[in-house]
Amino acid sequence: MKPDITKIISFFETEYPLNREGLKELLDLFRTKELKKNTLILAANTEENQLRFLNKGGIREFYASANKETNINFYTKPQFITDLPSFINDTKTKKYQETLTPVELLVIDKNSFRNILKKYECGKSFIDLSFRKLLKQKELFEFNRITKSSEELYNELLIYKPNWLQTIPQYHIASYLNITPETLSRIRKRIS
């Protein structure tokens, strides 16, 4: 079955206005992977070997210790979900990713992607732009976590990520905000 690449094409056109040379060849290398809800797709202490694009569904990204999981991101719209530092630098990740719903991914293995990078400039600009966006998001995330209250963070989710609040279980949202589900419930009552 040929993968549905309409969303990834749209993503590149809006997020990464890249050199078109090589883009079709890159897109032809992606294959479709369908996963069930609650499937672990990335585990800490492993190396990213695939570039993954979320075509449909929802995924949570989190850190885990022996007694606690802390959500750090949710992916609910078509976008790349690969841990880029691990993928590009051949290092082990510290993150986990798990499906929250059934998902459809488009995937390409690392070697095929690197071959395209060698052949065309479009891949290099994609990596550069991706790292810049990733660093900007990480800095904003850290700044907000340190300087804002849980209620302020929840209000930002209401404004900027309302789809998260509608589609992601509340205990995951509480973990993302680094509060208990009971505290989240109190915040929601105060705001409504």
Descriptive report:
Residues 18-117 form the Cyclic nucleotide-binding domain. It comes from Aquimarina hainanensis. By secondary structure, this protein is α+β, with helices and mostly antiparallel strands. It folds into two domains: 6-146, Jelly Rolls; 148-192. Helices cover 49% and strands 21% of the residues. It has helices at 6-15, 23-29, 84-89, 110-119, 122-147, 150-160, 162-167, 170-177, 181-191; strands spanning 31-35, 40-42, 50-56, 59-64, 69-75, 79-80, 96-99, 103-109. The strands form two sheets. Strands 1-8-3-6 form a four-stranded antiparallel sheet. A four-stranded antiparallel sheet has the order 2-7-4-5. A hairpin with a 4-residue loop joins β4 (59-64) and β5.
Indicate the multimeric state: single chain
The side-by-side strand order for the widest beta sheet comes to: 1-8-3-6
The tally of strands reads 8
Q: Biggest sheet, open or closed, and with what strands and sense?
A: 4 strands, antiparallel
Summarize the helix and strand pattern as letters: HHEEEEEEHEEHHHHHH
Q: Can you tell me the CATH architecture of the largest domain?
A: Sandwich
Low-confidence stretches: none
Radius of gyration equals 18 Å
What is the overall shape? elongated
Ends: how far apart? 47 Å
* Beta-strand residue percentage: 15-25%
Just give the CATH class of the largest domain: Mainly Beta
* Number of H- or I-type helical stretches: 9
> What is the averaged pLDDT score?
86
Considering DSSP H and I runs of 4 or more, what fraction of the residues is helical? 40-55%
What is the assigned CATH homologous superfamily of the largest domain? Jelly Rolls
CATH topology of the largest domain: Jelly Rolls
Structural class: alpha+beta
Total domain count: 2
Domain Cyclic nucleotide-binding: 18-117
Protein name: Crp/Fnr family transcriptional regulator
Organism: Aquimarina hainanensis
